[in-house]
Amino acid sequence: MRAIVRDSYGPADALELRDVSRPPLGEHDVLVRVRAAAVDPGVWIFMTGRPLAVRLAAGLRRPRVAGLGRDVAGVVAQTGAAVTDLRPGDEVYGTCRTGSLAEYAVARQHRLARKPAGLTFEQAAAVPVSAVTALQSLRAARVGAGHRVLVIGAGGGVGTFAVQLARASGAVVTGVCSGAKAELVRSLGAEHVIDYTRQEITDGGARHDAVIDTAGNRPLPVLRRAVTERGTIALVGGGHMRGRWLGGFQRQLAAPLLSRFGTARVCGVTAREGRQSLEELTPLLESGAVTPVVGRTYPLADAAAAIRELAQGHPTGKIVVVVRGR
Predict the structure, then answer these.
(1) Angle value at C-alpha 310, between 18 and 1, nearest 5 degrees
(2) CATH 3.40.50.720 domain locations along the chain
(3) What is the pLDDT of residues 234-243, one digit of tens each?
(4) Pairing mode of beta strands 112-114, 91-95
(5) Topology of domain 130-269, per CATH?
């Protein structure tokens, strides 16, 4: 099979499309014939090995897994002996453990769900990491009907899902994005849009019950001024390309301590992808209440270009790599 691989940490220029063996299949594993895969900041982090803390899990001097990518959508090709609820031919989506930028990938059965009816493979591949992150961010922020929610980075991968999910819960959403993405963010359900190139989130003095910060580039005091006294600030990734040791993760790690100072709650969000969250999203995706925003697609051979676009910052929605057509 063909796969995007690398032998060491480094820039996208070091990625190669090679012929490699199919990954081995464990008894609880599913082999997926990949149709589409998405890229996200995690791909960049594991490609470069930065922040350095990630190497504790991925390999200190060189990556333990040559492949890249977690988001996957495709067709079940083979199942392990202990898998009883999926069979060859089933269309699935979820996250894999061997690298989804490949013709075949292996995923644990509990990290896959049946692909929502009506979604293309490209749309389905955009969902697992970003939509689950958005879902869990809103849950951490205790967002409900009538709440006022500020989504920073509303035009990005997590942000486009956060706007739609908050709106579906009955919240009143304000999206923060560039002017070029304003109409998109409004179309997703935001009642108000702040163009961050023209004004700060605190201009006008409005306060929100929840702030979902997917950008990670505003100081905490600024975020505190945008939230009500008993509101919640959810810190979602961000700043992944800055900082040698922890990148943008130091704020998430410090969130419990930060909550002790001031009246607003501060929580760090790290998504836990799995079938339960995917199945919670499926009816929203099938009904059209939530629609994946695919900004741009690339063929597998151009996966390095897809990651470079991601690294430049501010992509619209999700960048998707098309691995195999119908």
Answers:
(1) 20
(2) 130-269
(3) 999 755 445 5
(4) antiparallel
(5) Rossmann fold (3.40.50)
CATH fold for domain 2-127+292-322 = Quinone Oxidoreductase; Chain A, domain 1 (3.90.180)
Residue-wise pLDDT tens digits, 68-105 = 999 999 999 999 999 999 999 999 999 999 999 999 99
For 287, the token pair is 């009904």
CA angle 159, 143, 286 (to 5 degrees): 60
Strands 29-39 and 104-108: antiparallel
124's tokens: 């389905």
